[in-house]
Amino acid sequence: METGFAFAGTPEEIAGAIRLITAVYEKSGYVREGESSALSRFLASTATATFIARAADRIVGTISVISDSPEGLPMDLLYKNELAPLRQRGLLLAEVGQFAIEPEVGLKDRTLSLSLFKLALHYGLRKGFDLFCITVNPKHEAFYRSMGFEIFAETRDYPSVENAPAVPMTLDLKKLAALAGSGASMNILVKEIFKNPPEEAILTQALAKAAS
Predict the structure, then answer these.
(1) Phi-psi bin for 183: left (phi > 0), alpha (psi -120 to 50), beta?
(2) pLDDT at residue 79 in the model
(3) Which of 60, 178, 179, 194 is most solvent-facing, going by the fewest CB within 10 Å?
(4) CATH code for the domain in which residue 110 is found
């Protein structure tokens, strides 16, 4: 089953991404049945770029990049005080979130997570963000560490996802880009992200929406 990727540029695509997030979060116990994630409201914001993966005309994966704005970031709910010094330094922040993959498809295509993250990362680099912020369940911490993310505060329970534990992490995008440009030795996953960039048309559409 061939998988294609796109920028979610229509209300229907955003709604489809939210349905997938809700279904995956229900199975994981992050939301109760029939409820949507409280964090999904950020997907409708003009500060958010959402990318999707499609297979057989249905959305099977999604990830979003939420630019810092007067609305703040989802993780401000838990880490506003910890994010404050970063903002005071004038750093441009964005949060990676609402990352969900249909379990059956994810098991068959192990590259799907990396392909979606690749879109988010290249979008962040093109937008000129300094730091990506993220909260992850401890069981996923190793994956993000392998990408260069670092923990910047203590683990806390996240009320928006049924009090699941959240590990707060940041990724220095400028440092990562400089490392890639230097030809230095990199983790194999990071190397793949820079060796095979995503389709330019997808990034162009997302950047045009962000500029409008």
Answers:
(1) left
(2) 97
(3) 178
(4) 3.40.630.30
Residue with tokens 């294609």: 4
Compute φ and ψ for 116, nearest 5 degrees: -70, -45
Q: What is the pTM of this model?
A: 0.91
Residue 157 lies in a domain: yes
What's the pLDDT tens digit per position in 66-113? 999 999 999 999 999 999 999 999 999 999 999 999 987 765 566 888
What is the rounded distance in angstroms from the CA atom of residue 135 to the CA atom of residue 78? Answer: 10
Range of the domain at 183: 3-206
Residue 212 belongs to a domain: no
**Closest CA relative to residue 105, chosen from 26, 4, 202:** 4
Give the Cα separation of 62 and 108 in Å (integer).
16
Please count the structural domains in the chain: 1
In a domain, 136, yes or no: yes
pLDDT, mean over the chain? 89
The amino acid at residue 205 is Q
